[in-house]
Amino acid sequence: MVWEMIIGHLYYQELTTTHQWRTSKELPLLEASVEMLLRFSKPGSSFSYGDVMGDAFGTSGRVLLQICIVINNIGAVIIYLIITEDVISGSTSSGIHHAGILEGWFGELWWTGRAFVLLVITTFVFIPLICFKRIDSLRFTSAISFVLAIVFIVVLIGVTIYKLIEGSIKTPTWFPNVDSTTSFLNLFTAVPVLVCAYLCHFNVHTIENELGDSPRMQDVLSNFDTNLAVPYSSIINNIVHISYALHIILIFPIIFHPLRLNLDGLLFPTENPFVSHNIRFAFLSMGLLVLCLSGAIYIPSIWIAFEFTGATVGVMLLFIFPAAITLRDCHSIATRKDKLLSIVMIIVALFSNVVAMYSNAHSLLYDSSSS
Q: Which PANTHER family does the record associate with it (predicted)?
């Protein structure tokens, strides 16, 4: 779960820092929703998120959950692929070009282009990694990706402390500056990013089932392409780019695993798991990979994927479904506190996302009219 919770903070550090107050308020709800899922899976001997939904709402509940997971994870995989393109090949936003790793080293060539680089990484990295049928087979790559994330964070903190001591940057603000209705509504544009960052529920049961025991899990760039005005700036830039790119690449198969698993359950609900069906496994894997690659190449902005998944199916998986399972309480184990918390979760989720979608639509219309 750690790798999924880190990603939003890494790529949109400035955004999540600005909205720190929202993050701190949503974390208790996140922990509560995961705890509810695990607790309500025990009486019904459920081994997955889908089993818990099926136990509470029958086949229709399970199918609805699987559809949401498939949609969410297709969006998440596309997000990861777009980030990989941005970091390795560079990106252009609002007329400003940010050079990627290869472009910074070798210049703008045909083989440093986004589509070509993504195809090469897919051929030599993604395809071998998605061939594993069990998520515990990815434990070593997951450990490496976590270490790389720590490297990124340590470098980021080190550079920030150095520049704060030097006085070349302002002290970070802990609270947003809200001086109008528009600025207040803009706070909620962080919701899709935070939902994508903290959504780990579809892997909770899979990881727990494949652990040797059930220990308590510990809590655990936007383009460094300019002169940081610190010693060894160029070397630090390269370390940040490389560690972050490798981190994203190694996370990819962990997001891909539940996507493939739930799509298989949707298309072949009465068949045995695809672990014993190599042809079905191969066709599902390649079909999804081609779909996600196409989305990453042709979708112009990562925000489209964030807003599509985070503000819709993401919030259902993160808050609404766990709360609905608790309110359904088919095994009569929910306390009054559980049900009250579930109602709060649903209200907060619906309100935040309605405002977020309104704010995003308002910004889009305003930008269009301005241009």
A: AMINO ACID TRANSPORTER, AMINO ACID TRANSPORTER AVT6A-LIKE
pLDDT at 2 over 50: no
Average pLDDT over the chain, rounded to whole?
76
Q: What's the confidence (pLDDT) of residue 235?
A: 80
The rounded distance, in Å, linking the Cα atoms of 80 and 267 is: 25
265-278 burial: b if 16+ Cβ within 10 Å, else e: beeeeeeeebeeee
Q: 292 with 84: CB under 8 angstroms?
A: no
Q: Is the separation of the CB atoms in 29 and 345 below 8 Å?
A: yes
Select, from the ranges 93-102, 124-133, 154-163, 196-205, the one with the highest average predicted confidence (pLDDT): 124-133
Between 170 and 54, residue with greater pLDDT: 54
The continuous run of DSSP H or E covering 174 comes out as: none
Distance between CA 265 and CA 59 in Å, rounded? 12
Instruction: Give the Cα separation of 249 and 141 in Å (integer).
Output: 10
CA torsion angle 302 103 289 301 (round to 10):
10
132 three-class SS: coil
First to last CA, the chain: 41
Best CA proximity match to 248, nearest among 63, 104, 64, 121: 121
Distance CA 73, CA 288 (A): 10
The dihedrals phi and psi of 170, each to the nearest 5 degrees, come to -80, 155
The pTM of this model reads 0.73
- CB-based contact 330:304 (threshold 8 Å): no
Q: Of 237, 256, 208, which Cα lies nearest the Cα of 69?
A: 256
Query: What confidence tens digit (pLDDT) does each residue in 212-241 have?
Result: 444 443 332 444 555 666 677 778 778 888
Residues 6+ apart with CB under 8 A from 249: 84, 121, 125, 126
Q: Which two tokens stand for residue 74?
A: 């297709």
Q: What is the pLDDT of residues 58-98, one digit of tens each?
A: 989 999 988 988 888 888 888 888 888 888 888 776 677 77
Whole-number Å distance between alpha carbons of 211 and 202: 16
Shortest CA distance to 254 belongs to which of 30, 53, 49, 80? 80
Distance CA 243, CA 261 (A): 29
